[in-house]
Amino acid sequence: MKTRIFFDYLGITIGSFLIALALAVFLVPNRIAAGGVVGLATVIFYLTTFPIGITMLIINIPLFLTGLKIMGAGFGIRTIYGIISLSIFTDFLQPRMTALTNDLLLASIYGGILGGIGLGLVFRSRGTTGGTDMIASLVNHYTGITVGEGLLMADGIVVVLAGIFFNLEVALYAAITIFIQSQTIDIVQEGLNVKKGVLIISNKPDQITQMVVDNLNRSTTEFAAKGGYSCEEKKVLLCIISRSEVSELKKAVTDIDQDAFVIINDVHEVLGEGFTEIME
């Protein structure tokens, strides 16, 4: 338990640093207001020269109180830590770093990737850095919408403001950053090691299960089903395999039952025996 807590806070710290670094070397120097409280603070910075970190801290106070009330003290402690860490890192790095590129497209792409990795680490560590990412976490908690999708929706307002106070071109680049960031967040949280979930409907389920066990060293789960048209009782097999095993499975199923109905879907994360260990 203590080890997990340590790694949670380490992840929030590293993630906050990466977000601040993305702001300092890619986004802020190029006036890319990439949504949320960070983007709003960027707009305010260029209008008033008020430090971005302090601005984020001030704006996050009411959002934090809302999150604390809904999600509980554990969420609140991690959120306080994330908010303060990001604010400190941002105000430390931003005046001391220079832009790595003045090309708006490169800045929007790499700023989105670096910031997305940072936010993904924070979310994976069960924390937030406040702002719309905290709102997105709350939406994810209650609706199941991915955090990346939640951020994409919530950040649209700030892009509009950037277009009003800066110009339309910069706002369009900010939209690119937000999209790339949202996709990167989901990759960090769900992983790159995509598995395949296979549903097999066949009149020879026992033979197919035995083939999966013998040839692929996997197992299957059986579900009782009934054909909607034929009204026949069926067995549906569920099997999780790697991408490299898909061709072998399809050929073997066809050899056993040419009339089998096979559905193959991407599975972004598999927890449990034979796959990723479940973390408490």
TrEMBL record:
Domain DUF2179: 218-272
Chain segments annotated as transmembrane: 6-28, 40-64, 70-92, 104-123
Membrane topology, as annotated: Multi-pass membrane protein
InterPro entries the UniProt entry points to: DUF2179, N-reg_PII/ATP_PRibTrfase_C, UPF0750_membrane, YitT
Subcellular localization(s) per the UniProt record: Cell membrane
CDD domains: YitT_C
Pfam family, one: DUF2179
Keywords: Cell membrane, Membrane, Transmembrane, Transmembrane helix
PANTHER family recorded: UPF0750 MEMBRANE PROTEIN YITE, UPF0750 MEMBRANE PROTEIN YITT-RELATED
Designated name of the protein: DUF2179 domain-containing protein
Naturally occurring in which organism (per UniProt): Halanaerobium praevalens (strain ATCC 33744 / DSM 2228 / GSL)
